[in-house]
Amino acid sequence: MDSSSPLIQQFRKFESKEIGQQLIDQALFYKADPRIHIQKGMGKRIGCIFLNPSLRTRVSTQLAASNLGVEPIVLNMDKEGWALEMKEGAVMNKGTVEHIKDAAGVLGTFFDILAIRAFPSLTNKEEDMSDFVFSQFVKYSGVPVISLESAIRHPLQSLADQITIQEHSKEIKKPKVVLTWAPHIKAIPHAVANSFAEWTLGMDHDLTITHPQGYELDEKFTKGATIEYNQRKALEGADFVYVKNWSGFNDYGKIITTDHSWMLTEKHLKYAPNAKVMHCLPVRRNVELSDEILDGPRSLVQKQAENRIYAAQSVISHLI
């Protein structure tokens, strides 16, 4: 499948409820019988290229590929590969060793599918918003490319999140979903929050986003959501609460406040007695979320992590 196809574009930017529901249904089909299509990908390889660290994304993608008979090969490019030059026309007389044109081109001949993880710099807003590094792999590899988190989106995480919401909202016609900012000790990218907002709105759920003033996300991901600066008010009557930190977008990459009162505890959910709590992991315990929430009956974080396998499997299955 050509890397410019609508399906590949869909994994970069979720827009269609119909396609989203198809991916969710396929993921749940695989969850019921993970190796039902073990012959489907025989003879194919997926290259999982990590420019940044990973736990769930790496292992779940490998498991998903293996369930389909696809051979996964992992390269931790930040530790095991050559330093890459991304700029067109660069004179490579400094620290970079290999140009992305050459590296991506070679990887495209080795693999049927690439899966790339590349975090943002959080310093160059224009470059990050263009998804520059991820786009270079798409441009030069010549094969389908799956995002394992890029500068602006984390689509497989968001697909797993929507699978989890569907599994736990069977009696709820239109769940109220709240995305709440949480404090953190360092500047965190926007990819998870962007994708979660985009997919949740795409599935026509009722989305409220709450955060301190100054932490507004890019409007292209949040248009249609209710923005509420009062966390207590936002949480009232919530069915699902997604906890995530992110740094400033307008004041790009900056930590504007670390207000500890935004850390989610049971007290915060006084007026949301049935709320389930989600987080993509890894989580800073007792900074973003309290132990009582994470280890209590509200927590869906382990369910989300398990669903990462079937989200990836659904996508890889479509591609092959």
Short description:
This protein has 320 residues and is an alpha/beta fold.
List keywords for this structure.
five-stranded parallel β-sheet, alpha/beta, four-stranded parallel β-sheet, 11 strands
Describe the protein's topology.
Layout lengths: L5 H7 L4 H16 L12 E6 L5 H12 L3 E6 H4 L3 E2 L12 E2 H11 L2 E5 L7 H5 L2 H10 L3 E3 L7 H13 L8 E6 L9 H12 L3 E5 L8 H4 L3 E3 L2 H5 L4 E5 L31 E3 L12 H4 L6 H19 L1
Parallel strand pairs: 1-2, 1-5, 3-4, 5-6, 7-8, 7-10, 8-9, 10-11
Query: What percent of residues adopt helix (DSSP H or I)?
Result: 25-40%
- What coarse outline follows from CA principal-axis ratios? globular
Strand content: 5-15%
**Rg (C-alpha, Å):** 19 Å
What is the number of E strands? 11
Number of helical regions: 13
Low-confidence stretches: 1-14
Structural class estimated from helices and strands: alpha/beta
List SSEs in N-to-C order: HHEHEHEEHEHHEHEHEHEHEEHH
The largest pleated sheet is described as: 5 strands, parallel
Beginning-to-end CA distance, first to last residue: 8 Å
The averaged pLDDT comes out at: 94
Please state how the strands of the largest beta sheet are arranged side by side.
9-8-7-10-11
What does this structure look like?
With 320 residues, this protein is α/β, with parallel strands linked by helices. Helix content is 38%, strand content 14%. The protein contains 13 helices and eleven strands. The protein has helices spanning 6-12, 17-32, 56-67, 77-80, 100-110, 125-129, 132-141, 155-167, 191-202, 219-222, 231-235, 291-294, 301-319, and strands spanning 45-50, 71-76, 84-85, 98-99, 113-117, 145-147, 176-181, 206-210, 226-228, 240-244, 276-278. The strands form three sheets. It has a five-stranded parallel sheet. A four-stranded parallel sheet has the order 2-1-5-6, sandwiched between helices. Helix 3 (56-67) links the parallel strand 1 and strand 2 (71-76). Helix 3 (56-67) crosses helix 13 (301-319), helix 8 crosses helix 9 and helix 8 packs across helix 13 (301-319). The longest helix has 19 residues, at 301-319. The chain starts with 5 loop residues before the first helix and ends with a helix. Residues 1-14 have low confidence and may be disordered.
